[in-house]
Specification:
single chain, five-stranded antiparallel β-sheet, mainly beta, Jelly Rolls, globular
Length: 130
């Protein structure tokens, strides 16, 4: 077996929560010292609404925009029914911005869904990572 713990770091962006209508803005994750990243979006129990995850990027950690499709590997699917609950989605990032954060837009939800998102940083300049 080969160890990946020493070469990857997981940073929470959207902490686990029941989300209802509105936009949830995740914590900023700094990619300095890493040469790869991936968004991991997790959906638990779904009761209603549409929950759309996205990845945003920034040069300065202040002004964020949605990552363009040319800088993404894979797609994220909105959680809008029981078929998407209790699942994990992954999306690779191949852009060159220093900062990332997860976003989630929720619409038509009364009780919502349990969701979270993390940024996995990989290919570090110095390993092992702490």
């Amino acid at each position: 077996m080969r160890d990946i713990k020493s070469s990857q770091d997981v940073q929470p962006s959207l902490h686990p929560a029941a989300r209802t209508n509105g936009t949830a803005t995740g914590s900023t994750v700094d990619l300095q010292g890493f040469n790869g990243a991936m968004l991991v979006f997790s959906a638990g129990a779904w009761t209603d609404g549409s929950h759309t995850p996205a990845l945003h990027e920034s040069d300065d950690g202040t002004t964020f925009i949605a990552v363009g499709t040319a800088d993404l590997l894979g797609t994220l699917t909105a959680v809008s029914g029981t078929a998407q609950q209790n699942a994990v989605q992954r999306q690779g990032y191949i852009g060159n911005k220093r900062y990332l954060r997860a976003m989630q837009v929720t619409a038509t939800a009364t009780t919502g869904a349990l969701t979270s998102a993390a940024i996995v940083r990989g290919r570090p300049n110095v390993a092992p990572v702490a």
